[in-house]
Structures are given as C-alpha cells and as structure tokens.
Amino acid sequence: MGGKSTYIRAAGVNVLLAQVGSFVPCDSAEISVTDSILARVGAGDCQSRGVSTFMAEMLETATILKGATERSLVLIDELGRGTSTYDGFGLAWAIAEHLATRVGCCSLFTTHFHELTALAAKHPCIVNRHVSALVGDGQMTMLYEVADGPCDKAFGVHVAEVARFPPTVVASAKRKLEQLEDANLAAREEGVPPTAAEAERKRPALSAEERAAGLAEVRSFLDEFGALPLGTMAVAEAAVAVRAVVGKLRAKGEAGGANPLVASLVRAA
C-alpha cells in the first residue's frame, strides 16, 4: 500500500531496461552491469505439489542464496510472513546478513520487522529507507516518498480502518497494541536497554499544536495539487504547474521557523 513492493520491482525493471539498451524512465542514472536479477516477490502456493506459500517462499529464497554473486541484483519482498514472528524475523535477519556480508551483492530487502533495521548499525554497507505516510484525525495519507532511516511506527491498524474493518475489531486491535506498547515501556523503565532499531527510530516528539498546524499545511498542499487539471494540460504546462505547487510547500519547509512536520517532509523529498 505504501509502495515498497512497487519501488523494488521498478528498480529491477529499470536495471533490465538499461542492460538491454533501452531507455530508462529517469533524468539520469548510473546502473552497473548485472549477471542476474533474482527476485522473491509476491506470494503463492502449489497445491498439486503440496507446497505451501511459506515453502514456496523458502524454495525461491534458497535458489537466490545459491545463485547470487557479487554482480547480481537481489529483490526480496516481505520475507518470513508465513511462519511465526520469531522464526520469520530470524530467517529474514540471517538472509539479509548473508547477502550483505557473504555475497556482497546489491540487494533491496523490504520488511515489516522493525528490529531488522538494527543491521544498519552492525554493517555499514546496509542502509535503511522507509516510505512516508501522514496520519492525523483518523485518516492516513500515503505520500509515496522514499525517505532516509527506518519507519518510526507501523500502520497496520490504520490500514484496517481504511479497509473498513468493523469498529469493534479495530478498537480491540488498538487495545491490544496499547497493551504491547505499555509492556515494552515497562521493560524500558526496568532498565532493559532499547534495541538498536528502537534507538534509531526514536525521534523528537511534535507538540499537538505543531502536528495540527503541519497537517493543515500538508492537506492544503494535497488539495491544491489534487485540483490541478493535469489530464487536460500539455506535458510542459503540467510540469510547470506541479513545480509551482511543490515549490510553495518546499519554501514553507525551508523557511526559518518552519513547522517541524513540514520541514521533515521537505527534507525527505
């Protein structure tokens, strides 16, 4: 929903286009020659062979680990979802670390295991990125931007609300989430040190006023952008109009005394 899978698939397609001598949809790019593009994306089983979704995922990943070289491009999307949380996290950690330290290939690895971001502190060759989202007043807006650092929170409950889950189910999920967060906070207060991922995700909190003002400015930007009649404009005219609208938000974010939320979005862009 946030665009992670689309992002890594687009990277694979662009590398393939460049290698066959085709045009690549960008202003400029430096793309290395690869000996293979190895992808573990999507989910599916094979009932006729008795292969579960998780087994299919493991078989494909095993092929990648055996065949990848330092000249390969590896794309892995949400590995480890078909088993327990700890099993899935352990497998994802080991596979990501193996690709980074043993194979040394260029890899794009998407995950919902926040703890996996701690690998960046252990191995300098690993870099964390996240897709941005704006949450406020019970609404969630996906910004479809790839920003530096790990994501500071998950949006599963918000997605459930967007999908129109029954309110009782959403309320129950929120209560359970709060219980788990309270348990984690209690562990911190007892002196249990935060994980590297938690420390990296920790960011200065916004006041309610700052958050409300920032959300208002971003919604104003989204409304103005959405009102552009891009479908009836010439390409050059549309580009000028988009740059003008984006420029207004960028000017607000870069100005002295800018709203912290707007400033952070502008920096991420």
UniProtKB/TrEMBL annotation:
InterPro entries: DNA_mismatch_repair_MutS_C (IPR000432), MutS (IPR045076), P-loop_NTPase (IPR027417)
Phylogenetic placement of the source organism: Eukaryota, Haptista, Haptophyta, Prymnesiophyceae, Prymnesiales
Pfam families (alphabetical): MutS_V
One biological process term in Gene Ontology: mitotic recombination
Any GO MF annotation of the entry: ATP binding
SMART domains for the chain: MUTSac
Protein name per Swiss-Prot or TrEMBL: DNA mismatch repair protein msh2-like protein
Signal peptide as annotated in the record: none
DNA-binding among keywords: yes
Keywords for this protein: ATP-binding, DNA-binding, Nucleotide-binding
GO cellular component: MutSalpha complex
Domain DNA mismatch repair proteins mutS family: 72-88
